[in-house]
Design goal:
The chain contains 16 helices and 15 strands. The protein is globular and about 70 Å long.
């Protein structure tokens, strides 16, 4: 790409530092400038249409042109464009949203804490767990467990929780006090001849061994996404969460459901924890909480934890944590309206009506020679591209197959992400219709055919 002088693309290259981007390549490739959106579609500055197959970043559940959310923002902006929750202050939208989240929660909730995004919510949870254990006299119970390939954010602490090498390399992460346990991906990590039941039992035994070796009095909490998103859309086998939670409860270790991607209908129920039989102590949520129209996240705190935190703040004199924009009244008003729209329009019912078509088209891809595994649930899924289908051997990173597939998809009018190497993810807005699902997969299949030609022509399956 050659950006015209003074074009948006040229100005972007000159001035913007992009997240999750090869910054050297960006100087020549340049950006895709998105100008507007309508429904499940977005349009670039040249007028080209794209199906947004990732709902942005797993977040625009109601699409890109929901007038009711725009109206909710405008109304609140006119009434009170900003206020905060520090020092006994509050606003009506924050109160109403906290009440609504407690009503919808999959577990009993004492209080709701608001932050600006998923990273902030999960960072808050780490601090709350530490604060709670100090409050109850367990000063050594501080280690936090998460999983290989898990994703929980990009702050210093939550990037440490995240179990992906790219989030650690040259950032001097992970920090001390974070440990990663087994990834529950049966396709990748099962031993030869091991059943899913035996795989689950082994992971639970490994967790038990780690706890007994290190000492339960030093381990505070376990973070898990019900469906692992950025790590590859990994869905644990049946029985995984009950088995892991039995071990955690035995050793007084809190469990946390990171619902940043899974929450608010993505898996066919309000919460991924409900779909995957996970009964956590805490819940974090963001993204579809506001339909992604404004930044907001929340932490759902159990009553017994709140009571300990409350009493400790009384001893100290304050609860010394919070964000300037946590519980922003405009974001809260938009989030409250989004939750109302999910109910008024029966978005969960719609997801369950169209998900069979989505999963059928996804599973058809499993027969493709480059697809090692097709996996999904509700309106989220992925296909993992492999160099050797029989042995499950992945492509060499230098082959760049996932990146090529993503580029071809974009040319075909489909925006996707290549995650965890060469896994192509699908997470469209939840308002997608069956005909649009078919069009999305038709565009992907054309991209997959083009990347297959590239692999064969360049002999990429044999690159080591």
């Amino acid at each position: 790409m050659t950006a015209l002088p003074n074009s948006l693309a040229a100005r972007d290259i000159a001035h913007v530092l992009h997240p999750y981007t090869n910054l050297v390549k960006h100087e020549t490739a340049g950006p895709l400038v998105i100008e507007r959106g309508k429904g499940i579609y977005v349009y670039d500055d040249q007028g080209k249409e794209y199906i947004e197959g990732m709902a942005g970043l797993w977040c625009a559940g109601l699409g890109f042109s929901e007038a009711a959310l725009v109206d909710a923002a405008a109304e609140q902006m006119r009434k009170l464009p900003f206020y905060h929750g520090f020092g006994h202050k509050t606003t009506a939208p924050v109160i109403a949203l906290a009440e609504k989240l407690k009503q919808l929660s999959p577990v009993p909730v004492g209080k709701v804490f608001f932050a600006e995004g998923g990273s902030g919510a999960n960072d808050t949870l780490i601090k709350l767990v530490w604060y709670y254990n100090n409050a109850r006299g367990k000063a050594d119970k501080k280690t936090i467990l998460s999983r290989v390939k898990g994703y929980h954010g990009v702050t210093v602490a939550t990037a440490s929780l995240t179990g992906l090498a790219a989030n650690h390399r040259d950032f001097d992460l992970p920090i001390a006090g974070i440990q990663h346990v087994d990834c529950p991906h049966y396709y990748r990590y099962a031993e030869p001849g091991e059943s899913e039941t035996d795989f689950v039992s082994r992971l639970a035994r490994n967790l038990e061994t780690l706890i007994e070796t290190q000492g339960a009095d030093s381990i505070a909490a376990f973070f898990a996404e019900p469906v692992m998103g950025a790590g590859g859309v990994i869905i644990p086998p049946k029985g995984y969460y009950p088995a892991m939670q039995a071990v955690l409860k035995k050793h007084d270790i809190l469990s946390i459901s990171d619902e940043v991607i899974c929450g608010f209908g993505r898996t066919g129920r309000w919460w991924g924890a409900q779909t995957l039989d996970y009964q956590p102590d805490f819940v974090s949520c963001a993204k579809q909480l506001s339909g992604a129209y404004l930044p907001i996240s929340a932490v759902l705190v159990p009553e017994h934890v709140f009571e300990a935190i409350r009493d400790n703040s009384g001893r100290i004199g304050t609860f010394g944590h919070g964000f300037t924009y946590g519980g922003h009244p405009v974001a809260a008003a938009v989030a409250l309206r989004a939750l109302e729209l999910y109910e008024e329009r029966d978005i969960l019912g719609h997801v369950n009506r169209v998900a069979p078509r989505f999963q059928a088209r996804l599973n058809q891809l499993a027969d493709h020679p480059l697809v090692g595994e097709a996996r999904g649930i509700g309106l989220i899924g992925a296909v993992e591209l492999v160099a050797d289908k029989a042995t499950r051997r992945p492509f060499a990173p230098a082959a760049g197959v996932g990146a090529a597939c993503m580029a071809f998809a974009e040319q075909e009018g489909l925006i996707q992400r290549a995650i965890a190497g060469d896994t192509m993810a699908f997470c469209p807005p939840m308002i997608i219709e069956e005909s649009e699902i078919d069009e999305m997969f038709d565009r992907f299949e054309r991209a997959l055919a083009r990347v297959t030609q590239k692999v064969e022509h360049e002999n990429l399956q044999n690159l080591r």
